[in-house]
Every structure is written in structure tokens, then in C-alpha cells.
Amino acid sequence: MRTYVLTDVSREHWLESFELDSSAFPGQPAEASTWAVSKRRLSGGRRDGVDLIDIDNGSLRMSIVPTRGMGLWKGSFRGLPLGWKSPVVDGPVHPSFVNLAASGGIGWLDGFDELLVRCGLESNGAPSGNYTLHGKIANIPASYVAVHIAEEPPYEITIEGHVDEARLFGLQVRMITKISTVPGSNKLTVRDEFVNLKDQTAEIQVLYHWNFGPPFLEEGSRFVAPIKVITPRDSQAQRSLSNHDVYGAPQPGFSEECYFYELHAKSSDQDRTLALLRNKAGDQGIALRYSRSQLPAFTLWKNTGSHRDGYVTGLEPATNYPNPRPFEQARGRVVTLPPDGSHVTETTLEVFDSAEGVAAAEAEIELIQALGTPQVHPTPTEPYAPEA
């Protein structure tokens, strides 16, 4: 394993730019010979001063934003774009331009344009009291960033980052993330370890807000998952519950809909499960794979407004549902970390550009769904959502 440190605040070490590709590893075979990693700093607008790390594994490309909590900004797979077109057109936005407390606690939206943005860690849901929308972690720059290149098969490329959400008399938790991919593959894995740095217990919540637009999202696209329980978040979602898994065309003025799920999982495979978004034709899709024991809650966010207003859907595995923290805490949906304790999560994004790949994922979901028929709550129902 070769390691290249790009940022280390503890040693006052920082590289403004960095370039590395497979030519530095002449012993790798042909199938691993087209990858590259680079770092650059953006200028102008609200992106001024934002660091970006670009990974190209030969098939899958991804941009990581250390300045924004090691989120994933945009990507592509064999020419298919990954991400969405946010009204935030000058992103990725530097955290200095995001006032989380603005507009009644929804200032987080001023910087929202990523493919993957983490929500947490003190809270990850709706604003409530001193808790702002989706928390702080996405607007905290990484204090340590390194590139790791494995010199043995499968020659994995890993970007490591450390992000501290910490203050005196408050939460003190370090997120150690490792974002990895194998040359030539259609997969990328995000492994996060949340470590309590305090001499007292700490409570955290984390939600993975994976966001997708066209070409995977279009009129007739479908959400497919092995559903155990489904509950509409509110009256808006309740009215459209029968079509929770089907997407419409862009509609100006569309009001967002959220659905809360428990998913079935394969207990024979470390409680693993998956969720799929596929286009109408079923020849393009993305799947998220994760462990239900790590991330027991799943939210589907449908926001099919006009393209200029943000035509997007979010697939969101999490430790809890994105209700206000007091509601979730009262129902036991927080993770408690002892001093020096940790909680690990791992999510894998898999991209399909063929009908065969999509069909295989659907068949896998069908097998897991055989564990039980979905239980459908027709209205917002405890303990998932506040009852009307």
C-alpha cells in the first residue's frame, strides 16, 4: 500500500494540487491500467477555496469534496452522469457561505447540490429547537486527507478523510471515512467510522442522502426495494402512497414527498439489503447496498419539480428517520457511543448501464422480498412518523 497525504492539519501539511495515475505503478495488469487521482482547488463564486479530489477508475468517475465533509459532488459511469442539477449552480459551495441557522434553520439548503451528502451528527432531520436542518457534518472541512493505492490485487484506490464535529461542552466525534473503488469496476464504497473523542457518552444520528436525477430519474422510473414496512411521512405523501415507487415527469411547483421504510435483509449475509432506482426502460439503474444492522431506517425522498427547480430523488439509508431529533430520541433512534467507542457504516453504490445488470438487481430484491409481504400504513403512523 502506498499512501500520499494531501492534508494533515496536525502537521500543518497541505497540498494545493496533486496528480497520480497508473503509470506510477508499472507492475499492474492491463485491467488496472487506466486509473487516475488528482486534487485541485476551485475559484470564483461561492465555490471559491473549495478543494476537489477527482477519482477515475477507468469506468467510474467521482469528485470528492474534503471542504464539505468528504461528500461526493458529482460523478459518471461510462458517460452516464451521476448526481443531479441543483438550483445551487455555483457549487460546490464553501461552508463559509452557508448559514445553517438562516431562514428558520433551513440554511443547509444554500449548499445542497451533492450526489452524496451526509446528514448529522447531533441531528439529521427537520429543524427543531437548536437543531438545524440535517445537521453540521456536511459543512465541516476535513482535517486529514490521504490517498491510498493498493499494490496487490484488486489494486483498490482509497481516499481517506477525517472530519471532526466537536465543540467545548458539546459533541466531540470524529468521522473517519474511506471512499474506495477498484479499477474498472462499477462500484464505489463509502465506509465511515464515527469515534467518540470525549470522556463521556455521545449520541449521534447519521443519514446518507444519496441524490439522483436523469438519466436514472425520468417519467416512469421506479424505486424497487424489499419492503417490510412503509409509512408516509405526512399528508402530502399519504395522498400519493399508491404511487410511492413510481416517478412522474418534471412538474413545476411539485411538493416534496417522503416515505419511511423498514427493509427486509439477508440475515445469512450480515443483514445486508439493497435498494434500486431504475429508469423506465429498465436498462439503466443504480443500487445502494448496505447493512440494516448499521443503518436500520430508510427514507425515499421524491422531489420531481421542474428541471430548473431540482428534479431529483433521494435514497437515504440511516440510523433513524429524518424527523425532529426529540421525536427520534424519544423512540430510541439515536446511536450511543461510550468513551472511545465507535459506530461503523458501509454503503456501496453500484451503477448499471445494461438491462441485464438491472434485471439481476431486481431478481435479487425479489428473493429478499419473499421473506414477507410489505406492511403498508395508509397514514403517518407511530413509531415511524408523528400521527396527524
Question: What does the model show?
Answer:
- The protein is mainly β.
- It has one domain: Distorted Sandwich (Beta-galactosidase, Chain A, domain 5).
- It is built from five helices and 24 strands.
- Strands 2-1-10-11-12-13-23-19-18-15 form a ten-stranded antiparallel beta sheet, with helices on one face. Strands 9, 14, 16, 17, 20, 21, 22 and 24 form an eight-stranded mixed beta sheet that branches.
- The chain is globular.
- The relative contact order is 0.14.
- The mean pLDDT is 97.
What descriptive keywords fit this protein?
single chain; 388 residues; mainly beta; Beta-galactosidase, Chain A, domain 5; 10-stranded antiparallel sheet; 8-stranded mixed sheet; 24 strands; globular
Layout of SSEs?
Blueprint lengths: L1 E7 L4 E2 L3 E4 L14 E6 L9 E6 L3 E6 L5 E7 L2 E3 L19 H4 L10 E6 L22 E6 L7 E10 L5 E10 L5 E10 L5 E11 L9 E3 L2 E6 L2 H5 L17 E7 L8 E7 L6 E7 L5 E8 L2 H4 E8 L6 H6 L4 E3 L4 E11 L2 H15 L5 E2 L12
Parallel strand pairs: 16-24
Antiparallel strand pairs: 1-2, 1-10, 3-4, 4-5, 5-6, 6-7, 7-8, 9-14, 10-11, 11-12, 12-13, 13-23, 14-21, 14-22, 15-18, 16-17, 17-20, 18-19, 19-23, 20-21
Briefly characterize the structure:
This protein has 388 residues and is mainly beta. The chain has helices at residues 102-105, 235-239, 307-310, 325-330, 355-369; strands spanning 2-8, 13-14, 18-21, 36-41, 51-56, 60-65, 71-77, 80-82, 116-121, 144-149, 157-166, 172-181, 187-196, 202-212, 222-224, 227-232, 257-263, 272-278, 285-291, 297-304, 311-318, 335-337, 342-352, 375-376.
